């Protein structure tokens, strides 16, 4: 690592920090499937609570998650996004199965059917807390938690009834959310509803608000037609009777979105005329996701047992505007599963044992109405059905985790998970190869993976702990890795990705400073990804190493500085001649430096102003490291204060300096491609409490 970069990040540490400095030893988290003080956790974990989320008033998940160390969510159009946690910005199959998105510990999608835009399905805006674990989390949470996981917690603990209404207004968008919490003698009832409408903000309208190249016959002089609408809801019931606890939850999301495509050309995001263009006005993305679970917790004399059956349904239709020929994909899956958990303290140890099982029926079709010969007849995306198949999936897993209190201040954690995934694939069209497309004949595939973990946590003082963690993450191939294949692939040729990870860190508080500092080294095998020409690459190898900082500095009672910074190198560890990959090359779409700094002014209770500085370093946008995006700095100003005891008002100014930048950049099919960052915009927020 470059010394100057190290010094730069170290300086950022002292001009950016974490708002919970004075109470870090009191924070209770669930990253180990058991409520624990954060100083006792033998690994890294970040969290954002509901108060912080309400203050941020996010348009998309990136505004919440990019405040945490080592995380970069790159936004596209509307709610489209790609996630990075200790990783490059992973697209295609690589992104779909590298991160696990959960709600109360239950995956939002079946592991083999993950969505690269999976945060669309989350209720992060209305959950009570969001936890982020960086690095492999497979031992406790299973497949897809290879680079990390994001878990939305919905548990709410209030002492009295409450009602909350929030309204967020801006030039092209409004957001409304409400919650009702009702407390009874032995039960609690919570209902949350979230609704967002956007009529052009995500599509970079011109200064007059006129749409450019309207979609599906839209009049481009009609600024009022919505470009996307999104709804989310949560209904949760908690009850206790005798020695049993009951939790019943229903939640879901719906998104209807007209999608803006990439603009093309070197630094096109700087050109005023190109910034307002929509080169793919026919593109869209519609998603619907519904899930429910019923959890029963039986308290025994010296242990607890929980049983959590759940159901899930997810569907998505979208125009694949990023591919030549722009085919239409439709996919859906429905699942039923059960999680069981046994937890028991004994002597100075704590044992957690669990069994997870899930059955899923899924389907996918891809159809193109017109031929595309961009790469010549032999490599064309032909018109007609590319893929049309059904899949039955079975997942069975068992895990054991033991926390050993080996001394008063030292805890050792050992764990292992075994997981078996089976797919039964059946095609509805004739097998064979056409252009780039290969339809596999019917087949069955199964994968068995083991994920070990060994960690240690040592308290140096009551407010400072040192931890080290070795773990392995596994990712069974996605169904699209195996069955949506290309002409040069072998059916069933993808293998389970494996990640070996080691990290060491320091966490705690010293006087007015709260700090978490973590260094990590990760090696991945069987890396599956799509190159810049749209070809799938199987069984690659990569390395990922760096360090992360999260902190809060309380300069005065009314002035805090908080934030995060990370420096990491993500490199290919293999050679691949067809697309020019050489061992040691930086993985494309992998900024080495990420930083987020918030200057916070709190003049009195319930009044807060914040200036946020987000920095993204330059990064290569192709595998050959021949093309680069220069990076950017974006400033955001927020404020919130009470009008009276029941009403709060706030404001947001995003992109204060009106920086011309790209939220996402890559180089594919011979072109620079960019999603344009938003211009400066003013937002008004209103909040009512009853």
Would you kindly provide a brief summary of this structure?
By secondary structure, the chain is mainly beta. The protein has 7 helices and 39 strands. Strand 6 (99-103) and strand 7 form a beta hairpin.
Polypeptide structure, described:
This protein is mainly beta and about 700 residues long. It has one domain (about 5-690): Maltoporin, Chain A (Beta Barrel). The strands form 7 sheets. The protein has a 22-stranded antiparallel β-barrel. The termini are far apart.
Write the layout of secondary structure elements.
Blueprint: H1 3-13, E1 28-29, E2 36-37, E3 46-49, H2 50-56, H3 62-65, E4 71-75, E5 81-85, H4 92-96, E6 99-103, E7 106-107, E8 129-134, H5 138-141, E9 148-153, E10 162-170, E11 173-183, E12 187-198, E13 228-241, E14 244-258, E15 263-264, H6 272-275, E16 284-299, E17 304-319, E18 328-346, E19 349-368, E20 384-405, E21 410-427, E22 432-434, E23 437-439, E24 443-461, E25 464-475, H7 479-483, E26 485-486, E27 497-510, E28 513-530, E29 536-556, E30 559-572, E31 593-601, E32 608-616, E33 619-620, E34 628-629, E35 632-642, E36 647-654, E37 662-668, E38 671-676, E39 681-689
Parallel strand pairs: 6-9
Antiparallel strand pairs: 1-2, 3-8, 4-5, 6-7, 8-9, 10-11, 10-39, 11-12, 12-13, 13-14, 14-16, 15-38, 16-17, 17-18, 18-19, 19-20, 20-21, 21-24, 22-23, 23-26, 24-25, 25-27, 27-28, 28-29, 29-30, 30-31, 31-32, 32-35, 33-34, 35-36, 36-39, 37-38
Sum up the structure in keywords.
55% strand; 690 residues; 39 strands; globular; five-stranded mixed β-sheet; single chain; 22-stranded antiparallel barrel; mainly beta
